[in-house]
TrEMBL record:
This is Methyltransferase-like protein 4. One of its GO terms (biological process) is methylation. One of its GO terms (cellular component) is nucleus. One of its GO terms (molecular function) is methyltransferase activity. Belongs to the MT-A70-like family. SUPFAM superfamilies: S-adenosyl-L-methionine-dependent methyltransferases (SSF53335). Pfam families: MT-A70 (PF05063). Coiled coil: none annotated. It comes from the Eukaryota.
Length: 349
């Protein structure tokens, strides 16, 4: 489990701990006699700095955003008072390794060194143990009982027709002016952004089980939030349930930036939760807090929070726009192997 502390709808998780648990006893397919424990590089979680906001723009959406930010801040203050001191100190001790500027440089170097053309590639691991596999000349860690399909989301979803999934997670590449500017400077740092209508047209509806939990990572842009609730979910046949908030904190558990007003940058992102059919016991307005990975789009794991909502023995999970793999999960996108490259990992005892 990645959960370090939980009380009701307030949760503190350790992303790296989750990864460490996944890759215990990895078998190298070339040397089946040797088992190795791996985890992702601890330096990627050495996030220290506290940055103040500078954007003071206001809009007609300001009141709603201020109200929401105040709610998240209140939840943060509540969980901060309850987390045991030993848990707080363990996070600082574990990740107090580098200055944040060096972490950014390290993250950028990893991003550029893990650009692969795996278009059309598919594979997986049908065993109950994680494997170290060679794929087109490079080594990748493949979790147990996982599958991956590299390519256009629409095409890959069509290939999966006939499969049914109990949990579907999506991290769409929302249209973003900042990413668009990066594309002009460095093609390696860009990805194919999609308009809201294009996301809504993804043929994922036929892949939902009769009772399915759907989680969509979304930016704080009001247009995208509205699109998920009023365009994407209705087109997919999904009913909106609630919104979860991922609060990004440094190793001292301080928010990465101040809680803003108007359209200022916020220290949190959101996961919009919906369902198909009957799915009970979904936590409302959940606050998920963690030190973020410095890797781009390396979101924290949600499986420990989503699976308990499903009343099935073997939960089948599908992740769209994946950049990494999860156990017992089918991952689809242009880069599902990106953050599985062995260069990002270190051996542990």
């Amino acid at each position: 489990m990645s959960i370090l502390y939980r009380e009701n709808n307030l949760v503190l998780i350790d992303h790296r701990k989750f990864i460490s648990n996944i890759f215990k006893g990895v078998i190298n397919k070339k040397d089946c006699l040797k088992e190795v424990n791996y985890t992702i590089a601890s330096k990627l979680f050495s996030i220290k700095n506290y940055k103040k906001n500078k954007n003071n723009k206001r809009s007609r959406e300001s009141n709603r955003i201020i109200e929401e930010a105040s709610m998240v801040k209140q939840m943060y203050n509540e969980i901060l008072q309850k987390i045991p001191l030993g848990v707080k100190l363990s996070i600082n001790d574990q990740y107090n390794l580098l200055e944040t500027s060096f972490v950014r440089d390290l993250s950028r170097a990893y991003f550029e060194s893990t650009v692969f053309n795996h278009l059309g590639l598919s594979g997986g691991n049908n065993s109950d143990i994680p494997l170290l596999c060679k794929v087109e000349g490079e080594y990748f860690l493949i979790p147990d009982n996982s599958r991956f399909f590299c390519g256009c989301i629409n095409e890959q979803c069509k290939k999966l027709k006939g499969n049914k999934y109990d949990i579907v997670i999506a991290d769409p590449p929302w249209w973003n002016k900042y990413i668009r500017r990066l594309k002009g400077a460095n093609d390696k740092l860009s990805y194919s952004m999609m308009y809201n209508e294009d996301i809504a047209s993804i043929p994922v509806k036929e892949l939902f089980s009769s009772n399915c939990l759907v989680a969509v990572w979304c930016t704080n842009a009001p247009s995208n939030i509205t699109a998920v609730k009023n365009i994407i979910f209705p087109e997919w046949g999904v009913n909106y349930v609630t919104t979860w908030y991922w609060l990004k904190v440094n190793i001292d558990l301080d928010p990465l930036c101040e809680f803003g007003a108007g359209f200022e940058k916020q220290p949190y992102e959101r996961v919009i939760i919906g369902k198909v059919g009957e799915v009970e016991n979904i936590p409302c307005d959940l606050l998920l807090m963690s030190v973020p990975s410095a890797l781009h789009s390396h979101k924290p794991p949600l499986l420990d929070l989503l699976k308990p909502c499903m009343n099935v023995e073997e939960v089948k999970v599908l992740e769209l726009f994946a950049r990494y793999l999860l156990p017992k999960t089918t991952s689809v996108g242009y880069e599902p192997l990106k953050w599985q490259h062995i260069s990002l990992y270190e051996e542990i005892e």
